[in-house]
Automatic annotation (TrEMBL):
Pathway: Cofactor biosynthesis; (R)-pantothenate biosynthesis; (R)-pantothenate from (R)-pantoate and beta-alanine: step 1/1. Belongs to the pantothenate synthetase family. It comes from Flavobacterium yafengii. GO terms for molecular function: ATP binding; pantoate-beta-alanine ligase activity. Keywords: ATP-binding, Cytoplasm, Ligase, Nucleotide-binding, Pantothenate biosynthesis. It is found in: Cytoplasm. Homodimer. Catalyzes the condensation of pantoate with beta-alanine in an ATP-dependent reaction via a pantoyl-adenylate intermediate. It is an enzyme of class 6 (ligase). Its EC number is 6.3.2.1. (R)-pantoate binds at Q61, Q155. This is Pantothenate synthetase.
Length: 282
């Protein structure tokens, strides 16, 4: 398969294969690839003549240096998975130097308040880092279509907002969450869980499905109190946040409106590992 470690050689290669008819699909990742990532790539392969995958652990989106240091890096295994999926995939695996030219700093973005909710409250600067790296990668790859998982739904909305505000010609496509056998949302961070923690993490999706059942006939306050009490009884998992929000604005729902779409968002800590998940409610 084609593997590029520098943006200059990648750009030259993409120019050499680009035609009016041949679209480029793009799947940006931080590696430690799992079936959820591969599902995004499969969709891109079906919908585009060429598919580019990036593997880059982006330092500017980590507000916790310990989390950055512990983030799994498995490039050799990732290459094997990509080759098995489709050897025609084009891999971009840059260094920090190649991406940031020696200055790994974030741009400042205005995401119309999307960045101030949920993850933004607990990870200051995170979405400026996300916006910076995604914008940079879009400028390098120039894809027609880019694929993101809905597990990081807030990130998906942030990327769409960044694309719109910067007038980038990229179609951002959200894809369904890929789950493990116990319905834990697939994540590279799951690799850091013990077998017991991974099994017990099924509580996250069980909670969300119960929330969906309760949503029609209960207030958001009542539901939020129930979720908090459920996690108070659990000694292994700590609830960082639970929010029912408007899908479009990500603002917390205080009063339901039948014309709006709502989604539940949750973040849980287990042994200092953050697990997030989400579910559509209506």
């Amino acid at each position: 398969m084609h593997i590029f470690y520098g943006k200059a050689s990648l750009i030259d290669y993409l120019k050499s294969i680009k035609t009016v008819q041949s679209t480029i699909g793009f799947v940006p990742t931080m590696g430690a690839l799992h079936q959820g990532h591969l599902a995004l790539m499969q969709k891109s392969l079906l919908e585009n003549a060429n598919t580019v995958v990036s593997i880059f652990v982006n330092p500017t989106q980590f507000n916790n240096l310990e989390d950055l240091a512990k983030y799994p890096r498995t490039l050799e295994e990732d290459v094997k998975k990509l080759t098995a999926l489709n050897p025609n995939i084009i891999l971009y695996a840059p260094s920090v130097e190649d991406i940031y030219d020696g200055k790994p700093l974030s741009q400042s973005f205005d995401f119309d308040g999307l960045e101030n909710q949920m993850e933004g409250k607990f990870r200051p600067g995170h979405f400026n880092g996300v916006g910076t790296i995604v914008k940079r990668l879009f400028e390098i790859v120039e894809p027609a279509n880019a694929y993101f998982g809905e597990k990081d739904f807030q990130q998906l909305q942030i990327v769409k907002k960044m694309v719109a505000k910067n007038h980038l010609q990229v179609n951002v496509i959200g894809c369904p969450i890929y789950r493990e056998a116990n319905n834990l949302a697939m994540s590279s961070r799951n690799e850091r869980l013990s077998t017991e923690e991974r099994d017990e993490a099924a509580i996250i999706y069980k909670t969300l499905t119960a929330v969906k059942e309760k949503f029609a006939s209960n207030s958001t306050t009542t539901i939020s109190e129930w979720v908090q009490k459920s996690f108070n009884k659990n000694t292994r998992f700590t609830l960082e946040y639970f929010v029912i929000a408007d899908e479009a604005t990500l603002l917390p729902c205080t009063r339901k409106n039948k014309n709006k779409k709502y989604r539940a968002f949750i973040a849980v800590l287990v042994n200092n590992i953050r697990l997030i998940d989400t579910i559509s409610l209506n």
